[in-house]
Design a protein that fits this description.
The complex is a heterodimer of chains A (158) and B (202). With 158 residues, chain A is an alpha+beta fold. Chain A has helices spanning 2-31, 125-129, 133-136, and strands at residues 36-42, 45-49, 52-55, 61-62, 67-70, 75-80, 85-88, 93-102, 107-122, 137-141, 144-149, 152-157. Chain B has five helices and nine strands. Chain B starts with a helix and ends with a strand. Classes of the chains: A alpha+beta (158), B alpha+beta (202).
Chain lengths: 158, 202
């Protein structure tokens, strides 16, 4: 009986902690919708979001504001939820600035910023559906802004 | 005397030719052809100017604190070499599948049930899976009703996938309602093409 009561108190104690923890993770999931997935990965690549660094694996989800970083002799390929495909060569640094794919409410946005390295971009549905490509579709580079009207392109940034 | 004059003329010509086939340096953007051979259009702009290009393998170079340079065409070999490493990491092209539904219904047609089983095998064979489901309707009924019906159809297909073991968080559902018909025919049996969910498997 004593053991049972002790067990119950431990259980209650654990519940107290697990509840806020559970609420915390679901709040994080609400705030951070998945915008893309890692589809190809060679060598060492990481995602940096605020002060958190995540080593990336095949199939990992990516979020708005993630900064993707590839090391020496590393590269990665990413697919977005609107079928936009991008890949990064070695020693590249790219921020996922903005992404919205909600045709129901006419919310479409794709914005990335490349700080260094190489980027291959293949447009997806956002570029087909948008009525304001100059506003909804932006690739920022150190030397200027690239606006895209449905295409495939390669960028080198230094 | 003659050779000197020749050199004076040839050296600049030679340098010009060299520049035309040399690889770009620094910050640059190259417009490439898509898989089907079509070529889009891009603009490169900063505070000092802008350039627009719409022909394949054309490059715009931009030096720091300068306007984007006049575009020039690169040879296919040069472009292939520059993009090789990055192109190798390009994700596979997404696959699309169509699932059809009965009139005003969120039940799959029997044909589509067979397709579902085949697509499920393809999904299970992949190492990484994320899926978009976009619901569509025919034009019978109000726009709002059809948006909701499209979403119900996509939701039904998602439930079937989840029941079959696909992770719910890897599936994204949307509805375009009657906005994107496959067939604009007024004939009833053609309208059936519009009662569908498009699955994109990435």
């Amino acid at each position: 009986m004593f053991l049972f009561r002790k067990f119950m108190s431990i259980f209650a104690f654990l519940m107290m902690f697990s509840f806020p923890l559970f609420a915390g993770t679901s709040a994080f999931a609400d705030e951070k919708p998945i915008i893309a997935y890692v589809k190809v990965l060679n060598g060492a690549c990481i995602a940096i979001n605020g002060s958190v660094e995540r080593p990336l694996k095949l199939g990992d989800p990516l979020f708005k504001d993630d900064i993707l970083k590839t090391s020496e002799q590393s590269s990665m390929g990413v697919s977005f939820r609107d079928n936009t495909l991008i890949s990064l060569g070695s020693n590249s640094l790219l921020k996922l600035e903005n992404f919205a794919f909600d045709p129901d409410n006419n919310k479409l946005a794709f914005a990335v910023e490349i700080f260094q390295g190489t980027l291959l971009y293949i447009s997806g549905l956002i570029s087909k559906l948008t009525k304001n490509p100059d506003e909804d579709l932006k690739i920022t580079t150190p030397a200027g802004t690239v606006t895209v009207r449905g295409t495939r392109l390669f960028i080198n940034a230094e | 005397m003659n050779t000197k004059l020749m050199l004076k003329l040839l050296v600049p010509l030679f340098l010009l030719a060299l520049a035309a086939c040399s690889a770009p340096r620094g910050n640059y953007v190259i417009l490439l052809a898509e898989e089907d051979g079509s070529v889009g259009e891009i603009s490169v702009a900063n505070d000092l100017g802008s350039q627009t290009i719409s022909s394949v393998n054309t490059v715009v170079e931009t030096s720091e604190n300068r306007a984007p340079k006049k575009p020039r065409e690169l040879s296919e070999d040069v472009v292939a070499k520059l993009v090789a490493e990055t192109e190798e990491a390009q994700p596979p092209k997404p696959l699309s599948f169509f699932f059809f539904f009965g009139f005003d219904s969120d039940e799959l047609t029997s044909d589509s049930q067979v397709i579902f089983d085949a697509v499920l095998a393809e999904i299970k064979a992949r190492t990484t899976v994320d899926i978009s489901l976009i619901g569509h309707t025919d034009s019978t009924g109000s726009v709002e009703y059809n948006r909701a019906l499209g979403l119900r159809r996509a939701g039904r297909l998602r439930d079937l996938l989840v029941e079959s073991g696909v992770t719910a968080s890897a599936i994204d559902i949307k509805s375009l309602g009657e906005d994107d018909p496959l067939s604009d025919g007024e004939v009833d049996n053609k309208k059936a093409f519009n009662r569908r969910v498009v699955m994109v498997l990435r």
